[in-house]
């Protein structure tokens, strides 16, 4: 599996596209809105130059793409004083994603976004000058010159690994995680440790790269899937959707539509750490201080903001979850099993 070429959200604007199935990601953005606002204000206070460079790492396309941009603009415009009105901070935004990202859709939406944010802005608070550029590439590589960025933001991305853990790749002598596609109840402890080690290595690399790119006093706001329990098997909770996906693939094997070897050789390049694991790897890096860390829970049904347990809601919820999973994992499955799946 080649992450740079194989991994991307479902493209287009149809019913199964990421653009129309990214409400879970939107919930995460809204949940962390206050933290982002605080980070922007702190960066502004420490800014000693006329340009602020802000980066959205792992952005995709759709309604959520420019949320980060609009929030930074709104905070700086709202907080502007007489001095800053005479010499407004100019904003340079970079939208980063893998080369397979639907950048064309992002670029097509920029003109409409500029018109919208200008119309919403109050007359007595001038709109800060801003410039937006796309930046293809993996955030597990260097993306910027040394000490050139003031703010990094990443939402719903850092649970993705740079690769499938070494030892689980297709073509090995044996399939260590037979019948599973992630960490499940029947996953051997050694395989779970491979996933854990891949997370540690990836996160240490990510922190090192961003430390080199951040200016002194720069900030990062990072939101990603984690698990509630220290137990790496997480009591089956967060791993449940991946388990359902694995069972669906197993049923295709039983029906003769997918070869068993194809399933056994497929593992998701993902890892959902606990809060203590995140703290430990940040401490190991000795590069950053954590000013705020929080675990928050969200319903797997992107359209369920309340609780409902009748049969109709249960069926509709299952459909909503399936659509959400398909828009994220569909391209990876197609790459490994073939488009006919």
Automatic annotation (TrEMBL):
Keywords: Magnesium, Metal-binding. GO terms for molecular function: metal ion binding; methyltransferase activity. SUPFAM superfamilies: S-adenosyl-L-methionine-dependent methyltransferases (SSF53335). The keyword Chaperone does not apply. This is Benzoate carboxyl methyltransferase. It comes from Aegilops tauschii subsp. strangulata (Goatgrass).
């Amino acid at each position: 599996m080649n992450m740079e070429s194989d991994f991307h959200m479902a493209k287009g604007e149809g019913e199964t596209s990421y653009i129309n199935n990214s409400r879970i990601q939107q919930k995460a953005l809204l949940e962390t809105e206050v933290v982002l606002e605080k980070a922007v204000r702190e960066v502004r206070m420490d800014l000693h130059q006329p340009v602020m460079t802000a980066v959205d790492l792992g952005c995709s396309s759709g309604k959520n793409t420019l949320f980060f941009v609009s929030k930074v603009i709104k905070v700086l415009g709202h907080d502007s004083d007489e001095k800053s009105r005479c010499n407004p901070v100019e904003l340079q935004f970079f939208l980063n994603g893998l080369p397979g990202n639907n950048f064309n859709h992002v670029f097509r939406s920029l003109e409409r976004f500029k018109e919208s944010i200008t119309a919403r802005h109050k007359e007595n608070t001038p709109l800060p000058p801003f410039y937006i550029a796309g930046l293809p590439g993996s955030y597990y590589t260097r993306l910027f010159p040394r000490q050139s960025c003031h703010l990094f933001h990443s939402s719903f991305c850092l649970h993705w690994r740079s690769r499938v853990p070494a030892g689980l790749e297709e073509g090995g002598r044996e399939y260590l995680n037979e019948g599973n596609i992630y960490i499940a109840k029947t996953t051997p402890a050694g395989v779970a440790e491979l996933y854990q080690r891949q997370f540690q290595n990836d996160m240490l690399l990510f922190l090192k790269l961003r430390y080199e790119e951040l200016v002194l006093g720069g900030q990062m706001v990072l939101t990603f899937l984690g698990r509630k329990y220290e137990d790496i098997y997480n009591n089956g909770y967060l791993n449940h959707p991946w388990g359902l996906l694995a069972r669906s693939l197993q049923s295709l094997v039983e029906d003769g539509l997918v070869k068993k070897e194809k399933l056994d050789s497929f593992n998701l390049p993902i890892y959902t750490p606990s809060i203590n694991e995140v703290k430990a790897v940040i401490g190991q890096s000795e590069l950053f201080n954590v000013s705020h860390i929080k675990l928050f829970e969200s319903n797997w049904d992107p359209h369920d903001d309340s609780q409902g347990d009748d049969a109709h809601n249960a069926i509709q919820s299952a459909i909503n979850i399936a659509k959400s999973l398909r828009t994220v994992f569909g391209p990876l499955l197609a790459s490994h099993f073939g488009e006919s799946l």
